[in-house]
Every structure is written in C-alpha cells, then in structure tokens.
Amino acid sequence: MNGTNPPVEPDDGEAEQNEEWTSEDYSSEEAAKRWRNYFAGLKESPVEITLHSQEPFAAQLVSRGVGQLRLLHLIAPPQKVVHREIVQDLAASDHLIHLIYAVRGAFRARAEGYDFHVEPGESALIDNSNRFELDMYTQHEAVDLIMPYPWLAQFLPDPLSYLGKPMPMDRGWAPPLAAMLLTIAREGDNCPQPRTLVAEQIGHLIALALGVRETVAIRPSARLAQQIMRRIESDYADPELSPEGVAADLRISKRYLQALLTGAGTSFVRELTAVRLDKANALLTDPATKALSVAEVAYRCGFLDPGYFARQFRKRFNATPRMWREMA
Prior knowledge:
Layout: E1 19-22, H1 28-40, E2 48-51, E3 60-66, E4 69-76, E5 79-83, E6 96-104, E7 107-111, E8 114-118, E9 122-127, E10 132-136, E11 140-148, H2 149-152, E12 167-168, H3 174-187, H4 195-209, H5 220-235, H6 243-250, H7 254-263, H8 268-285, H9 294-300, H10 306-317, H11 321-327
Antiparallel strand pairs: 1-3, 2-5, 3-4, 4-11, 5-10, 6-9, 6-11, 7-8, 7-10, 9-12
C-alpha cells in the first residue's frame, strides 16, 4: 500500500507498522526532499543523506515490523549516509544494531575503529550508539534489519564483537538468513506465522550464519521471555490478558516479567497491542470476514473499546479500520 510520505518511525506499540513508498508520485526534487527528511527524522537512528548523483531522483522504500524488529528494504541512487554519535545515555531498547545486507551495489562503511567495504551479496553489523558513515557509490538495493541490542544479545553472546566484519550471505548458514530477509521484504504482508516467532527464527539464523555454537536464548530467563511472547500470541483475544495474570501462571512476579521483556527490548503492552492489531488487519482484509463490523473485529482481537481500537489502528496504519478495509 503506497503512502503519501515515506513510512513514519513507529512509537512504542507500533512495532509492526508496514508501509511502502515510491518516488514515482513526485517530482525529482520533491521526492529527494521527502527521502532526506524521512531518514533525518528517524527516532533512534537519524541520518543525514547526501545524494551523489545529479540524475533524476528515483527510489523505493518498504518498512516492515517483525516483532521487536524493523526491516527496511531500499532501492536508492548513489548516496552517503551519516549517523551522528549519540551523546546522551541510551535506554536499553533504544540501543540498536543494524544488519545491513547489500543485495545489489557495494558500499564503504566507516565507524569508530572500523573502515571496511561491503560487496554485493555481503552483510555487516553496525552499532547506532556511535557515529557511522555509509558511502554507496552506485545505485543499490539493500536490506537494513534494525534490532534492539538486548534482543540480539539473546542470540549472540557479545554482539559488539561482530561489528565491522563483512559476512558473505551465500556461504555456510548465511543463505537461509538472506532468503528470509528478502522474503519478509517482498512478501511480509502474507506472513503465515506470528511475527514475534518469525523474529525469533531470524535471531537463530543470525547466530547460525555467524557460527555461534551456543545461543544465549537457551538460558532459563530467555526461555521464560519466549514463553511470555507465545502466551501473548495464543491468548491475544482475551480482553483480560494482563502481565499480572501471565506472571502468576508462570509463577514469577510481575516485576520480573517486565524485566525479562525489557531485557528482550520490548514490553508486555507493546507486544500485546502489536499482535492484536496484526490480527485485526488480517480480519479487515480477509474477504471471508468482510461481514464483520469494525466493533466485532475489535472485540475478536481483545479490544473492549472500539474507539480505543480505532485510535491505535490509525496510529499504526495511518488509516481508520473502515478506510483500511475499503483500500484492501
């Protein structure tokens, strides 16, 4: 679904917003301006864009939420991307690691202590807490997987030790990861499994591709966090589902439950809202459930207040539930 602007950066509870944008609807000058403004406005990783080419601007951007992750799929002209160093202390969930996969076109990356080239078909991890520069010399296609550091640390014992090391995506265990990233980019709206589970699979594939022998996710605390996520996925339609109830069923305190999810880079409310909206999107766009009223869709997805549901839906999809159904 094409928007009038590049996708907006999600707030807490909007983790799975999906948007698509193309420059075709604008003049070259206006499209380039919107492109730069979008990336300059990213909440956690704002970047400055300098275009190298004087040719008419042409670009495409797809943004998909996958559980706690965000995946950007870009087709863009030659450009330089500069991310300024973040001076203030980052909240745990705002410390992000980017996995940038150069599908077509090479780029040079400079970061604190690193200066390396990423060739077509390679990927690299980059830390958003430090300044970095990416120089794309030619028109390029890339996937940028944005991951909260605490979430990635479930799968990699020391994520920072893997920074700045280009990884071929056609060798060893990397091809399944490359295939999954491209499939999400191109077919994300048709994902048959809950997206938090897809994110978990991505984490394990990253660990496999990097040769990690034992992921942190096998620890009891990580298994508990996964149990909480699965409970949200299975019981999202229950309007009484709460962190207190889930904590009691798992025989842990609510405070510990919240700490587990914070350590995974998310929160109970964020995950529950994202899953409920994901299910509502499926019901609103499925011809088999077209007869359901918007209020009934809200109720089936665990929302008791249709007005609150409509506000949350609009925040995520930039459209009311009724408008979204009509556009499907």
